[in-house]
Amino acid sequence: METLDLARLQFAVTSGAHFLFVALTLGLATVLAVMQTRATLTRSDTHLRMTRFWGRLYVINYAMGILTGLVMEFQLGMAWSGLTHFAGNVFGASLAMETLVAFFIESTFLGLWIFGWDRLNRWAHLGVIWVVTITAYASAYWVLVANGFLQNPVGAEVVDGTLRLTDAAAVLTNPDALLPFAHILSGALVTAGFFLAGVSAYHLRRGTAEQEFFRRSLRIGVFTTLPALLANAAFGGVQFPTLQPMKTAVFAGREEEIARLQAEMVAVHGPGDYIPPTAPTQLGAMIMLGVFTVLLLVSALSVLLASFRRMVLGARAWHVLLIAMIPLPFVSMIAGWVFREVGRQPWMVEGLLKTEDALSDLSPGTMVLSLIAFITLSVLLVAVNTWILARGARQGPEAPATGPAPAEPTPVLAF
Questions:
Q1: Burial call 297-326: b when 16+ CB within 10 Å, e when fewer
Q2: Measuring CA to CA, how many Å separate 105 from each of 102, 109, 116, 132?
Q3: Could you say which residues of the chain have pLDDT below 70?
Q4: Is the model's pTM score more than 0.85?
């Protein structure tokens, strides 16, 4: 493989590994904030215990996600210096904002949430989890501002061989950032919903003593998935008119249009192959749509079954189905990301900078060593997170909760 192919593979693995954590973290943060709001308003002990149990799993996933994010940042700086030189003046600020939000604000407030259970009053503690959720959204938004600019470079012009920002508002409101942002948030809720439903189904099938706890958790998960799937489909559908024409043509397999667009690209940008890899582009889109269809059918069936208490507690075949659904939202989201990114090749910045020109000056040997190191680290982090997360999920709510257990409530520190 050439250096360019190795670098693209390295980026695909590291960013894909990180995206697995992001998908669950964004969705769980929202569910936790709503759960804790319910517990705070009603003083429901069940919803409080739910918040602590699912919060523990959230913290595990968040911590490992931070590590995969660092791995991705390191490989981006090492392998793609040409991108930084050409477009760093425009999209670098959004990546800096993402780092500030995720590594400082979000992490700080998450620490306050973890250790504030018996130190903050219930309203302050509730406010903290909402700050964590909002900053998680903000972090995702800034990443998509950067990626949206690469997909659709608006608000900038080329001056002396580099991009210069001319309209910050255009960059921040780029349709290729805002629509995918809503699409990913709804997809994250789908991921979290099936995660809650699947873990709860596992415990109900085992006949755990916490029947009521996991009955309610399963219903929350199930009733989250259906509206999230419908929103996800809506935000995904409205993106198709904004896709690059070549990506759309390759996805649809329109050979005549592909040939016409290739000729137009050659006329504007000079000789070269401007057709993205057909197989992964089409495969990514088909897997995304196929898995979405399966999830929608299972979600609709689950909403119906979850309306009956007896079915929630005793439908063992349904429990197995929900357990099997846990990985599918991750598969769909990764497949969609492959379609989005591979489908814009050979461009790093659409129409302005080719991927091959964004590559750092690295030898094939150096790239191979780097690839082995980053892939090994990414796979290890995903495996460790999966094991710890599964172990925590199996333990149930009787295991040690997030932060110290609350002391006897007082008028000031009640919760």
A1: ebbeebeebbeeeeebbebeebbebbbebb
A2: 6, 6, 16, 8
A3: 1, 399-415
A4: yes
